[in-house]
Design a protein that fits this description.
The complex is a heterodimer of chains A (about 180) and B (about 170).
Chain A (H helix, E strand, L loop, with lengths): L2 E8 L8 E3 L8 E8 L7 E6 L6 E8 L4 E5 L6 E5 L11 E7 L8 E10 L5 E10 L8 E4 L12 E7 L8 E2 L1
Antiparallel strand pairs in A: 1-12, 2-11, 3-8, 3-12, 4-7, 4-11, 5-6, 5-10, 8-9, 9-10
Chain B lengths: L3 E8 L7 E4 L7 E8 L1 E2 L5 E6 L7 E9 L2 E10 L2 E5 L9 E8 L8 E9 L3 E9 L8 E5 L7 E2 L4 E7 L2
Antiparallel strand pairs in B: 1-14, 2-12, 3-9, 3-14, 4-13, 5-8, 5-12, 6-7, 6-11, 9-10, 10-11
Chain lengths: ~180, ~170
């Protein structure tokens, strides 16, 4: 098994404004984050910070709103935009699912991620997006914090996020050149 | 959750123009190729894919993406390759990433379908569905540049990982 669960966090009563994965193992090739979030406050964007760093992030967003498609660069550079969370004004009990893929996380060159989300609001509005982002640091990723740069989120109880590690290896058959 | 089995990973230790995976085992349901790389050269090029060295107009793809110029989409149906990604010029090397899912790669009764999600820094993000219109099982994968213009290369430190997905 080479796609291993590193840790799952389920938000308890009272909510959470940040979630941090610390001491991430360094023996993998890629990381995968899967979350299902709902926010009890107005802000709904979800951002990440690697190793607690607050610089060097950028992201391009391809978004469909149900009536139009658009693209834009995230205006936030002190953390990386990865997707949305359902808000308190959205349909009750709806949580927004997001998948984030972070290749080559332990390497000494710059890092990247790609993510997809779908945010549904009982047919009155729905968004889906694909995001490509970069972090310019050459440091290996040892921690990931999910938050909002202005601290305006409070993740609802039963929001969950799981971190998976994908390990490199060789089957002894496939050749590469 | 998918069961990934690592088949082979390469981290380039020097600049190279091609990456080849050969002798791919046939006992998995799907393949996943994860690319994370930077490119050098003097002109914008795309990193392309051929299966089994098939060099004929039997590839096609539909794409939907965004660049600095806006949203784009299209379809090409008689191509000589698929593609992993595009890249920016060597003057400002940018990280390019791709997660390239190859479905039912070993079946000999159907054409081969690929779902690709890729990005190049913040200059592009794209989703695509691609096809190879042959029933041959995929036994090798070749990554290459479509044109020699600008002498494009994959820079040292880039990583390419091939996984088998258990059905």
């Amino acid at each position: 098994m080479s796609m291993d669960l590193v840790e799952t966090v389920t938000v308890g009563a009272g909510g959470a404004s940040t979630i941090t994965f610390n001491s991430i193992p360094q023996d993998g090739t890629d990381l995968c984050l899967v979350y299902s979030f709902r926010n009890t406050t107005g802000g709904n964007g979800i951002y990440l910070r690697f190793n607690g760093s607050s610089s060097g992030y950028a992201a391009r967003v391809l978004e469909g709103s149900g009536t139009a498609v658009s693209t834009y660069l995230s205006s936030v550079t002190d953390s990386g935009y990865i997707g949305e969370a359902s808000t308190f004004s959205n349909t009750a009990n709806m949580f927004t699912p997001v998948g984030v893929y972070i290749p080559n996380y332990a390497a000494s060159n710059g890092k990247s991620w790609s993510s997809d989300y779908v945010k549904e609001n009982n047919n009155t509005a729905s968004y889906m997006a694909s995001i490509g982002g970069t972090w310019s640091s050459g440091a290996a990723i040892t921690s990931i914090t999910l938050t909002h740069p202005t601290g305006t989120i409070n993740l609802a109880q039963n929001s969950t996020v799981s971190l998976y590690k994908i390990t490199k290896g060789s089957d002894g058959i496939t050749s590469v050149s | 959750m998918l069961h990934y089995v690592p088949l082979q990973t390469i981290t380039t230790t020097s600049n190279v123009a091609t990456i080849n995976f050969t002798s791919i085992p046939q006992n998995y349901k799907d393949l996943v190729l994860v690319s994370n790389y930077t490119c050098g050269g003097t002109a914008n090029q795309y990193l392309n894919v051929r299966f089994n060295s098939i060099n004929s107009t039997t590839y096609g793809y539909q794409y939907f993406g965004a660049t600095t110029s806006g949203v784009t989409q299209g379809q090409l149906d008689t191509e000589a390759f698929m593609y992993v990604n595009g890249f920016t010029a060597a003057a400002s090397p940018t990280i390019a990433s791709s997660v390239f899912n190859i479905m039912d790669y070993s079946k000999t009764t159907i054409y081969k379908n690929v779902l690709n999600r890729c990005s190049v820094g913040t200059s592009s993000v794209e989703l695509s569905a691609q096809q190879l219109k042959t029933t041959s099982a995929v036994t090798s994968i070749n990554l290459f540049f479509s044109a020699a213009t600008g002498s494009p290369v994959i820079l040292a430190g880039s990583t390419f990982s091939l996984y088998g997905i258990v059905g």
